[in-house]
Protein: asparaginase
Organism: Candidatus Enterocloster excrementipullorum
Amino acid sequence: MKRILLLGTGGTIACKRTEDGLKPVITSGEILSYVPGSRDFCQIESIQAFNIDSTNIQPHHWLTITRIIREHYEEYDGFVITHGTDTMAYTAAALSYLIQHSPKPIVITGAQKPIDMENTDARTNLMDSLRFAACPRAHDVNIVFDGKVIAGTRGKKERTKSYNAFSSINFPCIAIIQEEHILFYLDDKERMPGSPAFYSELNPNVGLLKLIPSMDASLLDYMAERYDAVIVESFGVGGLPSYENGDYHRAVARWTSLGKTVIMTTQVTNEGSNMSVYEVGRNIKKEFGLLEAYDMTLEAAVTKIMWILGQTRRPEEIRALFYQTINRDILWKA
């Protein structure tokens, strides 16, 4: 029987009602009492990593989860992390870079309603996650939610209330789970190396600028004083505007002269960016050699550059690592 380690981090799944609203107070050990049937197919032990609303998740929490998994990696066959849904996609992506090529499954799950409620998705999601973590064909970091298994770098929360909150963006689901059955769409564990690569450094000095019409480019100047990298969420397939009241060309030139990283992505959820299509994107990318996220999710782009900048500050190494495919995060590169 497979041995699974459950890590509790808080979130809605662990919440109870208080005078101030839902608050995570249920421990990982208590959560297991709601899925007694899981004992039929796996042995489970639990650790409470922390117990917070996922709105409060920061990079140091990702490092804590990674450290716990690393310390216990040889003792267990799989790992399940219960987590709040609001930043779950960021955590799943971050763990994909901090724990690479894991032959053992690392599963992140949660719920839209607390596990102690009568009508909740929590018990199904947790049972599915434990079942997937105990599956001998499962590997690497994945989100399990509403019967879907989503690569850790491809998940995005697209609904705030519905049980089918998460989608796999620009990539198919790894598998679906229906009751006791797991149907794999991508079954490639034989390609995995024998042991994972763990990392313990992140650089959280990454900013995000979401463009809106008429936004002043001086915001990029302001951010250059405070961040080592910026991700610019542009319109459509990607580009930078030329406004009378703001010079994005000059602002980007300043970023690159300081040796800092600029990454272009799109505000559009599906199908990715392609800055070579329009003049507003092609010229500025060619002149400054900007990085482009292409079909990556925003969550993956953010956490990937945090991981990269934790390893190196050399531009050529940053570029090579950013375009290296890790846990299915980027497939299309022009």
